[in-house]
Amino acid sequence: MSARPSLFSRLPDKLGVLIAALVAVGTMLPLALLRANRIVPGEALPIWQALPAFQAGILIVALLICVIASIWLRVPGLRLGGAIGGVAILLVLMGQAGGYLTPAGNDLARVSPAAGFWLLLFALSLTVTDALAKMKLRPIWRILGVLLAGVGLLLLLGSGQWDDLSVLREYQVRSAAFWREAERHLLLAFGSLSAAVLIGVPLGVACFRVPRLKSAVLNLLNIVQTVPSIAVFGLLIAPLAWIAATIPGAARIGVSGIGAAPAMVALFAYSLLPVVSNTVIGLENVPGRIRDAAFGMGMTRRQAFMAVEVPLAFPVILTGIRIVLVQNIGLATIAGLIGGGGFGVFVFQGMGQTATDLILLGALPTVILATASAVLLDAVVEISESSATRTMRA
Amino acid sequence: MSMAILIRLAMLALLAVFLVQPEVFAPFFALFTTRGAPPIYVQSDLLSLALNHMAIVVTAVLGATVIAVGLAVLVTRPNWSEFLPLSRALANIGQTFPPIAVLALAVPAMGFGNGPTLVALFLYGLLPIFENTMTGLSNLPPTVQEAARGMGMSDRQRLWQVELPLAMPVILGGVRLSTVIAISTATIGSTVAARTLGEVIIAGLLSNNIAFILQGGLVVGAIAVLVHDGFVALERRMSRRAGQG
Amino acid sequence: MIELQSLTKIYDGVTVVDDVSLTINSGEIATIVGTSGSGKTTLLRMINRLVQPSSGRILIDGEETSSIPAYELRRRIGYAIQGHGLFPHRSVGRNIGTVPRLLGWKQARIAARVDELLDLFGLEPGEFRDRMPHELSGGQQQRVGVARALAAGPNILLMDEPFGALDPIIRAKAQDDLLAIQRRIGTTIVLVTHDMNEAISLGHNIAVMDQGRLLQFAPPADIIARPGTPFVEALIGSEDRPFRMLALQRVRDLIEKGPASGPAIDAWANARAAYAELLWSGREAAPVQEGGAPVGRITRAALQSQAEKPV
């Protein structure tokens, strides 16, 4: 047995074999879908028909390298690099397929990624995820990674490589609306989150201090969570319309039965439970001996709260905020159904028109936003945890 | 009988009466209608909607349970442990996908009807069950495992007779989470023409009829609460039996 | 008979058990004593192949254990561990019946065996059979754990710190019960402990281990009188040596004729307890009784002679 770790493993990696199988199937499946217009069914084209021979060759060779790397390469960093390279090539070449397949001067024809593209993207993302999970990166590197991925995505979109693909065709038609709804979506998600934090944290502290309040509040919030979101959104229309009509000035500040107000209130209602319960749990989990030590040193109730309990409960509260943010980014989509705006507008329009590309235009940014916020906030939670435990040891 | 059980029985009775004879509640829901709009949704039979709703939920959650528990068992076996970090990470990421987005993305692949809803609920249901099964299987008391091995149980016997039964309360917790989310999320399925109770709510949204929204929301909420409480009672019974409660 | 021949276990280049050979006769109790990290538990776990030896052989009644499938071997050897390891989701009866069920016994035979064992361990079957483990006291759980290990009537019982989780009073009772049961059913027992007192009071032979090596394997009196290495000597403790020697003897073996006054001492009590009683009450001698009838007396002089280093 040699002592020096080798770059290559003697036995094929099981996960690598699975990924190789996925890539093999993905290569056989159609890469792109060509349709005469955005609604009609189209013609599915495999890699060698969707791309010029040279580019098709590059893609197949790149995929082959990724497969070999994932089966025999042992160093996670190298596998990660290989897979990221593979994803980049796949994304760029997908854009090229758009330009190659669209007949010149034809604005109606649509080229969209097909099953093969999605499967290849999935397989390569698996390699990336696996390598990242095995590398156990420090939080700060994970944050940087997300930012880099974001920059990469912006560069790809900004370079115009993808302009011939159907999702971006949908975007070009309604770019103004896209950014308006994006802003609205973020406003809904973050606005309701801020309100939930402002109200929920003090409410959580109160629940921690008064046990009877705690069971009442948590039970009520639990029930709110079980009512389906679209019903909560809908039910708020009536009372808000009533407020807008009867309370002077309410309408002027934007309260109305339809639109953003009920959506905001509904998201707020859903956000309260995780914030309140995590605040309570965080405070309850502060070790009794540490609390005793604080009082033993002569701290007042308030001093012990600010200097000891809040800092130690902070990571748990932050976890609650992470749950709420990810949940709200998803739920804000439903606002589209009641005129509240957000990316849901495109999703529901797309469903109404059976226009897949339009659905994607709404769903993809939502998924990307939610996932990126989760990764970012997880990293922040981890940083705050390590600083809280440092405090505890000190 | 305790107050809590009485309240739940009353809730169940009200729910049953409403599903079979919704007209009984017409005077109540009429309070929320304007300009003589119908107080009760009659375009479809509520009972059949509710049954179809629950059929979709149960099918999706059952499928998710079989696959998620199977996967979790697989990656906790020593031979397959190289899949462990990946499956953890996937479960974590998958949880961040908004259910509506999953539903919306399933439509292009499957068309309208019950199909996309079933798939979305199935996919979304996988993660809590997988995560909980992993937690349950990796937090077993080490002395019990050691004793099982020492008495000569094979790996398979240990899995079926010791590991899975001991992890069962935690696994059930995951199934409960998935079921409650699925009951609520299934309503959105009606935007893609699945026959669920969401139909009532959407009809209310389209015709500006608060009574419809309210009855749809209340029925789904009541089912979710009852199912949730049923699961909790079952979990408690199991863990109390094993002295973990 | 259990024969360990040159057993060695190496984990990642670290030798945990180093070339250990010893023979345990049938019907005897061997205790393995050592500090944590001495390799005593690993040695025990190699006997039922929970740990695969790196080299060396184990023979049970002349048969090499590596020729038997591990699960089959384990079903033939009882195994009881610290913290009992009872299955929390199964009743006491189902717990005890585990190995018989694995061996495919008939239901009626299992049920009869369960009741027999509950009786043997002083647990009323009708009352305890259907209880769940968490409804028992610590001492009862431990007894059920040992009963479960004996369920299929194994010739060998391995015990890893079986009394480690018990408080001192219950612990002494559990040790006495184990000795009584072992005398009745004659099982060969290998017991791992870090407690020298336990090793001395239970073992026919004591194996002292340190850093993976077997330092000495001998009867208690030999270990106390002639510790093989300074480590063994330190483990026994020079202050305690005479009293440990006394503790090995019974009063009934030291009885002499003659008068004595004051409360009587039981003939089955150990000599150390008798000596303590004489010192405390300021007597030179005390009457001895067996089964309530006077059988003679015990003197300080007789006891003191037993506490001297044997030649």
UniProtKB/TrEMBL annotation, chain B:
Principal place of residence: membrane
Record carries keyword Iron: no
CDD domains attached to this UniProt entry: TM_PBP2 (cd06261)
Segments passing through the bilayer: 54-76, 97-127, 210-234
Keyword Signal: no
Membrane topology: Multi-pass membrane protein
The ABC transmembrane type-1 domain, residue ranges: 50-231
Keyword annotations from UniProtKB, A to Z: Membrane, Transmembrane, Transmembrane helix, Transport
Cell compartments where the protein resides: Cell membrane
Cross-referenced InterPro entries: ABC_transp_perm/SBD (IPR051204), MetI-like (IPR000515), MetI-like_sf (IPR035906)
Family, as annotated: Belongs to the binding-protein-dependent transport system permease family.
PANTHER family recorded: GLYCINE BETAINE UPTAKE SYSTEM PERMEASE PROTEIN YEHW, GLYCINE BETAINE/L-PROLINE TRANSPORT SYSTEM PERMEASE PROTEIN PROW
Protein name stated in the entry: ABC transporter permease
Species assigned in the record: Paracoccus onchidii
From TrEMBL, chain C:
UniProt-listed InterPro entries: AAA+_ATPase, ABC_transporter-like_ATP-bd, ABC_transporter-like_CS, P-loop_NTPase
Gene3D superfamilies recorded: P-loop containing nucleotide triphosphate hydrolases (3.40.50.300)
Family: Belongs to the ABC transporter superfamily.
Domain ABC transporter: 2-236
SUPFAM superfamilies xrefs: P-loop containing nucleoside triphosphate hydrolases
Pfam families the UniProt entry points to: ABC_tran
Coiled coil (residue ranges): none
PANTHER family from the UniProt entry: OSMOPROTECTANT IMPORT ATP-BINDING PROTEIN OSMV (PTHR43117:SF4)
Molecular function (Gene Ontology), one example: ATP binding
UniProt keyword terms in alphabetical order: ATP-binding, Nucleotide-binding, Transport
Lineage of the organism: Bacteria, Pseudomonadati, Pseudomonadota, Alphaproteobacteria, Rhodobacterales
Designated name of the protein: ABC transporter ATP-binding protein
